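Troubleshooting log. The previous structure file for this entry was overwritten by mistake, so regenerating from the original sequence record. Sequence copied from the archived sheet and checked twice against the printout by T.R.
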Amino acid sequence: MRPVFAYLALAALSVCPRPVLATEATTLIFQFEQPHSNRTLNGVRTEIGNVMRNAGFTFDLKLFSELGTAQEFSNLMVVRVKGSCKLDSGPAPRPEKGPLAFAHTSDGKVLPFIEVSCDRIRSAVRPVMWGDQFKIADELMGRALARVISHEIYHVVTGTKHGESGIARHSLTGSQLIGARLAFEPGDLERMILSAGAGGTD
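Regenerated output below.
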């Protein structure tokens, strides 16, 4: 982890130990390891808004590369995106083992610091794409990223492991990541709302 990025992550924790509240917008700061498409980022923004709306959460996405030196945030999460987010009609990448993303933990607490693997997401999504989907590949990659990130936000907000189905389930398939609709189940939404209403988990 680069020192400046580590400093930002630590600052986020010290300023906002309970990072996600339903009563105010949460800033999601993205650090992309490799170049990304604006359409992909817009896809992330749109899908996270759609997924989180029923839980009462709003998110303001910002790029780490565009931040000034003296900005402060009271409600913050940091998302580091590793690997290539470029999704095209070339040969499908070999499946990669390991989680699509994870949230860091410390002393049993889930921290507002998420790492996402675009390479693993691509290897899950590319084999199930076909036809005209390649014309909107960037948007679909954004949708998949958003759903994976929303899954991790669930862990950060609730401090719990997984739900039975929907976005909070243990694993998501490529088809689920880019399908027309995927949402949180009512019980998982209620758990998030209750956790946020309590000011986060302790």
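Confidence is low (pLDDT under 50) at residues 1-19. Archived copy saved in two places this time.
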